[in-house]
Write a structure and sequence with these properties.
The chain is 52% helix and 13% strand. With 216 residues, the protein is of the alpha/beta class. The protein folds into 2 domains: 136 residues, Response regulator (Rossmann fold), CATH 3.40.50; 62 residues, Orthogonal Bundle (Arc Repressor Mutant, subunit A). Strands 2-1-3-4-5-6 form a 6-stranded parallel β-sheet, sandwiched between helices. Strand 5, helix 5 and strand 6 form a beta-alpha-beta unit. The longest helix has 14 residues. 38% of the residues are buried. About 3% of the residues have low confidence.
Length: 216
Amino acid sequence: MGTVSLLVADDHEVIRQGLRALIKEQPGWKLAAEAMDGRDAVAKAAEFQPDVAILDVTMPLLNGIEATKQIAAASPRTKVLILTIHESDQLSRKAIEAGARGYMFKTDAAVDLIAAVNSLLMNKTFFTPKVAQMVLNGYLGKGLKASDDESLRITAREREIVQLLAEGKHSSEVATVLGLSIKTVETHRSNILRKLHCHSVTELVRYAVRNHIVEA
């Protein structure tokens, strides 16, 4: 295989710095681009078409799960590896359903990142034993079942708006980020609150935190 190009997306500089160093040490690997939020990650994936995108889950503007879905459309050749601090059956299941080929904890990156990337490059999946057990538990019904997942009630666009509202953005700011009219955003907002049985933005924030859409 020729040069392997990678995209790293994480809003924490120290994490990007560590990943940057690991990538630099590998012969034939290059860091094609970095991103500090999910929207920039999707844009960079579309622009650079990397072999592998390493994504954090909880990123500003667009979380890693939704970014994974959009990268699959913008750069189908790119394999996504989720790197997270969250030990959650729900998140691991969502990541796989979104199209991620690997899922690992940040604490394992120093030891397992190279093996994870190489597995994805060979069109294989990669899960550490702990993550594999979480995934298995989820699909055996010990974790959250898909039919019980509140997020299934809302559309992909509505999930984007949930995150932006939970991050404290006003309707006008959401409209600017998404290229929508304020009226459209407000209509979405009303629909979201109704679908999720939330009576205020405060309740919506709690929902977003509970579902790892934003960090507390």
